[in-house]
Each structure stands twice: as structure tokens, then as C-alpha cells.
Design goal:
Two copies of one chain form a homodimer. Chain A is α/β, with parallel strands linked by helices. Chain A has 18 helices and twelve strands. Chain A has a six-stranded parallel sheet with strand order 3-2-1-4-5-6, sandwiched between helices. In chain A, helix 2 packs across helix 8. The longest helix of chain A is centred in the middle third of the chain and has 24 residues.
Chain lengths: 420, 420
């Protein structure tokens, strides 16, 4: 702790006191709202009366667990933005808000009469943040966009997958999440700028555009190939410029090994202690090994396949060679490291039971982080939010519920809502 | 434009006037610095005398093109942080800086005597931002980390790849870039907070932790499977909950098709006009189609394989079914949409020639964005930066060059540097 700072200043949450309306759905918008909530903002998740699209995607449970992952520490209300009374109530909330975020298709909010321009006329300090597949302008603006189609259109699929297979989507929904974290990044930037100018800025993210820099390795390969498409390379180095680089077999699974520096290879050779490796000219340096990558992989696999994952990892860590076991999702959920850092939490969730949920990957030194609150049921915080933000009494809210402007919350939540 | 705002306020760059020291290397740190530079900050890329690691990874060109992608609009100086004179100069720069970012291994800056605590004592307004593989605490802190090993350890590999294949790394280096954009997000948050508190905050990102929320679909599948590892699913829906969902064959490549809503499927059925599809009970609703996904894919492929990519895309777009061609990297680089939006630029780069480079995916409504400046040569802006930041005259810089504290810039750049 520096002598010029006060502990109290660091214990605060970076975004405390800020009010956010989160109209996000599925992954993209909700992840931005999640990062805002975990940094201390008061984030209100606004859903349509029937709940957002993700609620219904739960398979056998009826409620998708991802709802629980991405909506922690938000308070929930459900309202009909198509009705006049709903729009009126929404505008009152907007007038109290610092940030509004949404990931609807371009033009959806304008069609409701709730576009950025109108809302910022009513509240010039409002930061209006939109994330779409292709952006709010340009010839592709109105193409329907999902993570899958953006992965196709962005070029990601063309360089993901085994050498001899078809183009492959990535396992995780990376276009959605790149969109979400860039949306948060834009909002945080606009919050900073508003402190300078006093004016809220509209922020716009296109998922497609967030994927472009992520192609850096393939763009480099294309450049080196004189503008041609680089091949899919499975687990090998995208430009055949390095080996060992990839995934190797053990008796009980796989490990990733990478020798970035010459000394890593020398140490690996020592550990493997295989005849004929040290003086093989095909293994002379990084560049040559990259060229003869298949031979390198054969040697490493011949060694690793006789050991188990833990043995390979322990040996190579002890010798400072970059290595990691390929872990399953259940192993990752139990990761002692992330639990010890307070990134993963064991939570008793009212809808999902005993589960592990993440806190934010954004960490601020000295902050007493907000405690993790389970995601809201549909309309759970209706009374509390309308009281906090607008000073509405219960009778006023009751009237809005009865006329169908708000969704009736679960009886357990009526007039209470859980405290945060 | 709202009546209460001034055009001049919106034309400004959100981060103009901010000073950043970017010690980033490879992708992670440099991408955060790139986003800062494109939002208007004065970002100084500080490299060791021999240049950062990425410079040497260029294959036949000797300089990796990714250097050019991720370092636009930064000014470059090269200095020896291990020498006393280098440390002294560095600290003078730190005293003028708003942000310092780095993605060295944990403890590297402390070992140089330049850790966050000391630097923030010297400059309490400094935001010190670190991105590492595993974070600055916890049992795995000191494991060597690269994008590849984080992909293994995070669980990403376990759910990427074809059904019958081994765990597979994703084509793009997503762990590195998720780290980089979260690092930027943390910095922007701390910049906002500093306006409230007056104090700079340390920000910490662990690549491993940024990948966890991105697993949401697989975490949901695991939850639905009672805690078991979900299988790799190639291009199919991770939870078999939806079809069509995936990549389909045409006469000249592949297309991605996804029917999120029932109406998408009905429209697709109309377009395909295949006998026996409409009344097949296996295709009755989303859930049933998900269960019989292989049959659905067979029907769609039987139709798509007779058309070319453009035909499939045009037909389905006309009928509002979510679709996209699987594009190659060269196609993406020429994308008319991203060029029209000013996201991609044709640049004559002094080291790479005529190339396409990206602007930032963070877009602020009304901003006159900074014009794209090519990435710096090693030490290119030495004289200009030390004059701007510290008021050093040429003779003072000459002395530092002669004693080896700074790297001699290319003779073309001596005393000039290109203007930004």
C-alpha cells in the first residue's frame, strides 16, 4: 500500500454508484452486464414478460444453466416494452440510468421508439451501448447473426480443425464472448470520457469486427504465403514455425507441450533422454524442427505415451518446460487455483442447487469484491428496483402488474426481493 | 445529435491526452495497447534493445506481420531496463504516465526493481496493469503459460474438435486475445475510477480466468449431464438441442446454417422444397430435430450440395434464415462490409508494403477516429518521445544512445520520427 493512498479508496468497487439497464440476451450483452455488476454497478436485467430467450434453452431442467453463470449480481425485472405504459416506465428508468446496453438486431430499439438518439435527448449523460453481429452500418448490417454464422463469416472456421477435415466451429462461443467483453470495454471507456466531457457517448460493437485481430497468426501466415489461405493445422503450429508445439498422448489423456525458446527444447531432450535425438540434424534449431514437425512430434509422443498426464506435467514443470494437462470441464470447475483466487465460487443457487459460478476475470488490487449473488428469477426484484430507482410504492407497482405492464414475480419475491 | 451536446465534444477521441507505457509482447499486452492507441491515447511501445520477441518470428520476412497488426498508432522506443541508467529513464517516464501495461511472467518487474508498488509510490495516479497466464497469486502462479497451454488447462481443447478426434486447440489464439481485451477493459475501468478517487489502481488479468465464462455452453451441457464431461461435437450443437445447426457442403465450399426459431426451420423447409420433410415426425420441433440432428443434417446437405455457396446464401438471406458462407482469410481481408465501415484499411506500411490493417472494434458514435499509423520500427520515436514527455534535447538522447541505454534507431528516424 502506497503511503499516499487510503485503504478505504482501494476497498471500494470501481463502478459503485453506477446504474445500468441490461437488455442483453443469451451471451453477448449479458456478459457485458455481468462484468459491470461484478465491478460494483447496480445492474438491472430487463426481460420481456415471457423471459429472455436463454431461459427456455435449459434442456431437461427447463432453465439454461448459462443464465445462472452470466447474470449473477443483477437484479431482475420483466416488462412489456411494446405497451405504452411499458415504454413510459422504461423511459423513467432511462432517466435515472448511467448505461443502457442491448444486443438486439440493428434497429430493434428504434422500432420501439426507444432508440439511442431519443433516449440521449432525454438523458444526455446516458451511455447507450449496442452489440450486434455486423454493426449498425454497412451492407451486411441486417444479416441475421449468431455466434455460429459469425464464426463462418469471420474466417475463424476456415482455420480451425484437423488438417484433413472440413472447416470447424470452435467449441466455445467465442464470437459471442468477444462481443460481450468488447462491449464492456467500450462502456468503461465511455464512462471515463463522460467524467471529462459530461456527456454520454453511444458505443457500438460488431461481433464480426472483434474477431479480426484474433486472426493475427493466420493473417501472418497468409502474408508469408503471398496472400494465400493458410491450411488448417489441427494441433500443429499454424505456420509450421515451431516444434514441439501441440498436444501429445499419455496413458490417461493428453498434454500440451510447447518449446518457445531453444532452452526449452534442450531441457525436454534432457528429460526424454531418448537415443539419437540430441544429434539429429532435423532437430538442430527451432526453424528446422518446425520444418520436420512430424518427426519431432513422433519423438515426443514415443516418450509421453509411456507416462501418465501427471508424470509428464510434473517432470516438465520441474525442468521449466512449458506444459499443461488437457483438462476436462469438470476438472476445470474444481480447479484449486481458481477457487483459491476467489474466481470460482461454490454457491447454493435457488434454481440450480449447489453449483460452481465464476466471479469476474477483472481484478482490481485492494478491492473488497462484491459477494456473488445468484442470478434473478424472472421479475424477482420488481418492487425493490422500482422503489430504489423511482420511489414507487407497492400500490403503484401492483397497478402496473395488474395491467400487464410488468410480469408478476414469483409470490416469494413479492414486495421483498433479495437484498444485495 | 442531441440539442444539449456539442459536436466538438463527440469528435474528440475518448482517451485523448492519456499517456501509456506499453511493455506488452506478442499478442496479449500489445492488443490492450492497440485498443488504447486507437481510442486516442499516446501509447509508447517500450521494447528491449533487441526488440520484443514477436519481431523475430517472421518466417521468411524476418519480421512477423502480426507486429504490424497489433502496434499501429504506437510510438516506439527501445531501452535497456536492466541497466541503472535505463531504470532511471524508465522511472522518469513512469512519473509522466497514466497507464503502464505489461504481460511478463509474474514477478518479472519486481525483479527489475520496477514493481507496481514502487512505481505507484512514485506516481500514485499510475494505473499498473498486468496480464499473465495464471494470475499473480495462487498455486499455479508460476507455471509457464502460453496460449497453447492455457487452451489445454482451461478445458477449451477438451470441447473443441471432431467427435471422433483428439482434443484440439482452436485455430485462433483465443486465450491471448481474451487476455488482451480484458486487460484493456480493466484499464478503462481503472481510468474511470481514478476520476472519482484520484488514485491509480493496479489491474490484474489471468488468461485462464478470462476463458471460464466463454465455456458457458459446455458448462450448461455438463450441468445437464449431471456433472459429466460433455463430448466434443465437431460442428453440431454442443448439447444436441438444436438442428439445423452447423456447417453444410456446397459445390464450392461450406456454409453455416442455424435455425434458432421455429419459423427459421419452416422457411428453410419452404426453400428446400424436398419431399417428405414437412411431415417427418423427427423434424416436428426444435427439440426433436436436435435429437435427430444427423437426419436433419442429411436432408440439408442433400439440398445444399447441389448449389454453390453464393446461391445457398442468397436464397436463405432472401427468406430470413440465418446463414453465412464459410469464408477464407483472404476473403475476410477484402470484406467490403468492414472496409466500408472503416474497420479495415489499405495501408502502405514501410516494412510490410501494401497491406490491410484493422482499426479498433471499439466504436464511439460521432468520434473522428484517429487515422491509422503504421507500427513503429524498433526505437523509431526515441527523440520525439523523450522530447515530448521529458523535454530532452537531442544531445541528451545522443548520450543515452552512446552509452547503450537506448537502442540506436534506424538512421532515417534519427531526430525525426514520424509525426502522429
Amino acid at each position: 500500500m502506497s503511503s499516499t493512498t487510503q485503504p478505504a479508496d482501494l476497498a471500494r468497487h470501481p463502478l459503485q454508484g453506477l446504474r445500468v439497464l441490461d437488455l442483453g440476451q443469451i451471451y453477448n450483452g449479458p456478459y457485458a452486464g455481468f462484468l459491470l455488476a461484478m465491478a460494483g454497478a447496480d445492474v438491472i436485467k430487463i426481460e420481456p414478460l415471457s423471459g429472455e430467450a436463454l431461459r427456455a434453452r435449459g434442456g431437461m431442467t427447463g432453465l439454461a444453466f448459462s443464465m445462472g453463470i452470466l447474470n449473477s449480481n443483477k437484479r431482475g425485472i420483466a416488462m412489456d416494452l411494446k405497451s405504452e405504459a411499458g415504454k413510459e416506465l422504461f423511459i423513467k428508468l432511462v432517466q435515472e440510468a448511467d448505461v443502457l446496453l442491448e444486443n438486439f438486431a440493428p434497429g430493434a430499439m428504434e422500432r420501439l421508439g426507444l432508440g439511442a438518439e431519443r433516449l440521449q435527448q432525454l438523458n444526455p449523460r446516458l451511455i447507450y451501448a449496442s452489440s450486434t453481429g455486423y454493426g449498425l452500418s454497412g451492407p451486411d448490417r441486417d444479416n441475421l447473426a449468431m455466434d455460429l454464422t459469425i464464426q463462418a463469416y469471420s474466417g475463424i472456421m476456415s482455420i480451425n480443425g484437423p488438417v484433413d477435415g472440413p472447416p470447424l466451429k470452435t467449441g466455445p462461443a467465442i464470437a459471442d464472448f468477444l462481443g460481450g467483453v468488447h462491449l464492456y470495454a467500450g462502456i468503461a471507456t465511455a464512462l471515463y470520457e463522460r467524467e471529462i466531457t459530461g456527456i454520454g457517448r453511444s458505443v457500438e460493437i460488431a461481433m464480426l469486427e472483434t474477431t479480426f485481430p484474433v486472426l493475427s497468426t493466420s493473417l501472418t501466415s497468409m502474408y508469408n504465403l503471398g496472400g494465400k489461405q493458410p491450411p488448417r493445422r489441427g494441433n500443429s503450429h499454424p505456420a509450421s514455425a515451431s516444434a514441439p508445439y501441440g498436444v501429445y498422448t499419455t496413458t490417461d489423456g493428453h498434454v500440451a507441450i510447447i518449446c518457445v525458446r531453444e532452452v526449452h527444447w534442450q531441457r525436454l531432450v534432457t528429460v526424454m533422454n531418448q537415443p539419437g535425438v540430441e544429434d539429429n540434424l532435423h532437430f538442430a534449431d527451432q526453424k528446422t524442427r518446425g520444418k520436420y514437425g512430424d518427426e519431432v512430434d513422433e519423438v515426443v509422443n514415443a516418450w509421453s505415451c509411456k507416462l501418465n498426464k501427471a508424470e509428464v506435467v510434473e517432470l516438465l514443470r520441474a525442468h521449466n518446460v512449458p506444459v499443461a494437462p488437457v483438462r476436462t470441464i469438470p476438472e476445470v470447475v474444481e480447479d484449486p487455483h481458481m477457487h483459491s483466487r476467489g474466481t470460482l465460487h461454490r454457491v447454493k443457487h435457488p434454481e440450480f442447487g449447489d453449483v460452481v459460478l465464476p466471479h469476474s476475470p477483472l481484478r482490481f488490487e485492494g478491492e473488497q469484491r462484491v459477494s456473488l449473488q445468484p442470478s434473478p428469477r424472472l421479475g424477482e426484484h420488481t418492487y425493490k428496483v422500482l422503489d430504489d430507482w423511482l420511489g414507487y410504492d407497492a400500490a403503484t407497482v401492483d397497478a402496473l402488474l395488474e395491467q400487464g405492464t410488468l410480469a408478476a414475480p414469483d409470490p416469494r419475491d413479492r414486495r421483498a426481493g433479495h437484498e444485495q
